[in-house]
């Protein structure tokens, strides 16, 4: 028991130390924030900003008009650094799903089981949201905002039903299979449509197909290898390199979008 507790403390500490926010440490950004706080973040100016702020930004905890400063900071960097070291702002490395999965497989309780299941559903819905942002949001941000609200409502209803009414394993399985199918079809359709124009989307196709193939491990049942690695454990291990490949796709796609935005900026 003491050993398990120690491992959990070390894992939580590692998650707390994870950082992805170089942008908010940039001197240009810090100076801009100080100036913005003096001029825009108090009194009538702040009230004016909040009165015009979309409700989803307010509910998400964005009470200050600092958003444009991130773009100012990004464009102030040298072009080579802007391309190779894209700054992130107030970023968090999301380890929530893997964290709760680790906790649940270490200590099976009602709470840890629910957190593991709920975070898994959240990851799938978040992937659908990312797909919507990439395929629709760049041209129609209002559609993305409405779709995000729909996904949050779906997650709220799903979690509420399983928490307050009945924890139905069958329903949870069908619900996750349904949203997982939407996720797969949407990403694959977009990749197939753009594979000639954007060769890097093939990485995304490989990721989607691998994850679907690896999910078959969840349906298999065989004696654990070395009495340790059963099908479920092998599935968890196998998803790690897949996410590395997906990050590579995101990196390539971000570079493409950056070049595209730079070209439009020069034309303007």
From TrEMBL:
GO biological process: GPI anchor biosynthetic process
Keyword Transmembrane belongs to the record: yes
One example GO MF annotation: hydrolase activity, acting on ester bonds
Membrane topology category: Multi-pass membrane protein
Gene Ontology CC, one term: Golgi membrane
Subcellular location: Endomembrane system; Golgi apparatus membrane
Superkingdom in the source lineage: Eukaryota
Endpoints of the signal sequence: 1-23
UniProt keywords, alphabetically: Golgi apparatus, GPI-anchor biosynthesis, Membrane, Signal, Transmembrane, Transmembrane helix
Pfam families to which the protein is assigned, alphabetical: Per1 (PF04080)
Segments traversing the membrane: 149-167, 173-193, 205-227, 233-250
PANTHER family attached to this UniProt entry: PER1-RELATED (PTHR13148), POST-GPI ATTACHMENT TO PROTEINS FACTOR 3 (PTHR13148:SF0)
Function: Involved in the fatty acid remodeling steps of GPI-anchor maturation where the unsaturated acyl chain at sn-2 of inositol phosphate is replaced by a saturated stearoyl chain. May catalyze the first step of the fatty acid remodeling, by removing the unsaturated acyl chain at sn-2 of inositol phosphate, generating a lyso-GPI intermediate. The fatty acid remodeling steps is critical for the integration of GPI-APs into lipid rafts. Involved in the lipid remodeling steps of GPI-anchor maturation.
Protein family membership: Belongs to the PGAP3 family.
The protein, known as: Post-GPI attachment to proteins factor 3
Organism per entry: Macaca nemestrina (Pig-tailed macaque)
Name of the coding gene: PGAP3
């Amino acid at each position: 028991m003491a050993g398990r507790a120690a491992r959990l403390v070390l894992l939580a500490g590692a998650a707390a130390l994870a950082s992805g926010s170089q942008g908010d440490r940039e001197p240009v950004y810090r100076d801009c924030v100080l100036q913005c706080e003096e001029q825009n973040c108090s009194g009538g100016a702040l009230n004016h900003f909040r009165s015009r702020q979309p409700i989803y930004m307010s509910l998400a905890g964005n009470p200050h008009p600092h958003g444009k400063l991130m773009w100012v900071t990004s464009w102030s960097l040298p072009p080579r650094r802007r391309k190779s070291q894209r700054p992130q702002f107030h970023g968090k490395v999301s380890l929530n799903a893997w964290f709760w999965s680790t906790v649940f497989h270490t200590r099976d309780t009602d709470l840890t089981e629910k957190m593991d299941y709920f975070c898994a559903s959240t990851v799938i819905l978040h992937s659908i949201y990312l797909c919507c942002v990439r395929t629709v949001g760049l041209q129609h941000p209002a559609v993305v905002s409405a779709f995000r609200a729909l996904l949050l409502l779906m997650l709220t209803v799903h979690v509420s039903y399983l928490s307050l009414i009945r924890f139905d394993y069958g329903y949870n399985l069908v619900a996750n299979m349904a949203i997982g199918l939407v996720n797969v079809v949407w990403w694959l359709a977009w990749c197939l449509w753009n594979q000639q124009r954007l060769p890097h989307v093939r990485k995304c196709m490989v990721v989607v197909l691998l994850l679907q193939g690896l999910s078959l491990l969840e349906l298999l049942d065989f004696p654990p290898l070395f009495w340790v690695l059963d099908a479920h454990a092998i599935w968890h291990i196998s998803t790690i390199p897949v996410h590395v490949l997906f990050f590579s796709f995101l990196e390539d796609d971000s570079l493409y979008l950056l070049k595209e935005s730079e070209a439009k900026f020069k034309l303007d």
